[in-house]
Amino acid sequence: MKVSEACLTDIKKITDYRGNLSVVEELKDIPFKIARAYWVYDVPGGECRGGHAHKTLKQFLVALSGSFTVTLDDGTEKRTFLLNHPYQGLLIETGIWRTMDDFSSGAVCLVLASEVYDEDDYIREYDKFLEYVSDADH
């Protein structure tokens, strides 16, 4: 995937005078089976999260509360997205470097992942990432 193909995706929003509800279903709204869910919160001001890529794992990110930016990098192009609505998400395909910055106070990032945690799936050094994406055999 090239970052030029990435975009924010609207999530179904059910409005009700008692409060709104949004829902996603695997293989319907999200193009993978959900193997793991986790959330990032209480990020101190000025801190960055992410700073890695995955070889096989795909992720879907949602700002459940507050806001933050996600910068995607495919080795040739970078794009930054503001996540600030709980009814929008960002799909991150494999082989994409990502960083998350500018967390507002009280921000909560939900991550739906296609795989269970596997340290061997991570590419944590940017120069290794550039080697990985330039290798057509991965």
From TrEMBL:
SUPFAM superfamilies in the record: RmlC-like cupins
Q: Which residues form the Sugar 3,4-ketoisomerase QdtA cupin domain?
A: 8-133
Instruction: Write down the superkingdom of origin.
Output: Bacteria
Family annotation (Pfam families): FdtA
This protein's name: WxcM-like domain-containing protein
Could you tell me which species this protein originates from?
A: Xylanibacter muris
